[in-house]
Write a structure and sequence with these properties.
Blueprint lengths: L6 H24 L1 H18 L1 H4 L30 H37 L1 H15 L3 H12 L3 H27 L3 H8 L4 H37 L11 H8 L8 H28 L10
Helix pairs in contact: 2-4, 2-11, 4-5, 4-7, 4-9, 4-11, 5-7, 6-7, 7-9, 9-10, 9-11, 10-11
């Protein structure tokens, strides 16, 4: 028997989801730390999206004002090639956030599927997936990403592929643990007893119970992905010139620290503030979505 989803039922479901989103946003803004993190994330995202509009110069345009200090024609100064640091920082935000978002979305989708398969079906699937993720966890994250990029060569596509491979295990492990816990609950066993299919059980019970840890992991992974992307860019294995990225800006500015600190300070501060914002937001989401932590933060 197939139950038809009427427009009224669909609208009711959408309305509940909207109310949950509004309630979550209200809880985040009530927390001082969460509100700060949210403001930072929103501002950095807006800067990245609006970079072509608000950047005062072309980020690749060179001038004769090399290593110019902040002020005058360049609000935050100029780099060793006379390029505006503010414009390059804005386009660097665009690069870092885009790469990180693509990486975490793809790694999250693959990791969630693998975690559901391993945690719900167990057996052979779990025996294959779990050891594979454990092996990947045994390597330092940056070293594993560095090995993949070094093997395939520098470039944006290879960087994204390397980071996706690096972040899949964390999502798979979290979802696997949740699936193993929820599948033993009485309501799941009751669903199996009345003949619900495994797919129905996964989407009705397992996946909804995994939303909270996935959301927290998504936010913290974005921060970590920005750090790794900047690290690989600093080593010359990330986004290639002339495209602006925070890591490559740090790398090119380090040779001129004695003459001007601004080519290194500007991207360094951008990385620090952005990572801080995502970490603060992730910590607040964890406190809100985990019932065991509610009321303990004292903020």
């Amino acid at each position: 028997m197939v139950t038809e989803v009427t427009p009224a039922r669909r609208a009711q479901t959408t309305g509940k989801a909207d109310r949950r989103s509004v309630q979550l946003l209200r809880l985040i803004t009530r927390d001082r730390v969460g509100a700060i993190g949210l403001v930072i994330v929103v501002l950095m995202t807006a800067a990245a999206v609006l970079a072509p509009v608000i950047a005062p110069y072309d980020p690749t345009a060179m001038s004769n004002q090399r290593l110019a200090p902040p002020g005058g024609d360049f609000l935050l100064g100029a780099d060793e090639a006379g390029r505006d640091l503010l414009s390059r920082a804005l386009y660097g935000a665009r690069t870092s956030l885009t790469v990180s978002l693509v990486v975490v979305l793809c790694a999250g989708a693959i990791g969630v599927v693998l975690g559901l398969l391993a945690g719900f079906y167990r057996g052979v699937l779990d025996a294959i997936i779990t050891p594979a993720t454990d092996i990947m966890f045994s390597f330092p994250t940056l070293l594993l990403a560095l090995a993949v990029v070094a093997a395939r060569g520098p470039g944006t596509e290879n960087l994204i592929l390397a980071l996706i491979i690096v972040f899949i295990p964390s999502f798979a492990r979290i979802v696997r643990g949740t699936a193993m816990s929820v599948r033993r609950e009485p309501y799941v066993e009751s669903g199996q007893a009345v003949g619900l299919s495994n797919t129905r059980l996964i989407f009705k019970y397992i996946l909804p119970n995994s939303v909270a840890p996935i959301a927290v992991q998504f936010t913290t992974s974005l921060a970590y992905a920005i750090l790794i992307e900047a690290s690989l860019g600093y080593l010359g294995l990330g986004v290639q010139p002339p495209q602006a990225s925070w890591g490559s800006m740090l790398s090119s500015g380090k040779a001129f620290m004695e003459m001007s600190i601004w080519p290194s300070v500007v991207p360094g501060v951008c990385i620090m503030i952005t990572v801080l914002g995502f970490n603060l937001l992730g910590d607040t989401l964890r406190d809100i979505l985990d019932p065991r932590l509610r009321g303990r933060s004292g903020r």
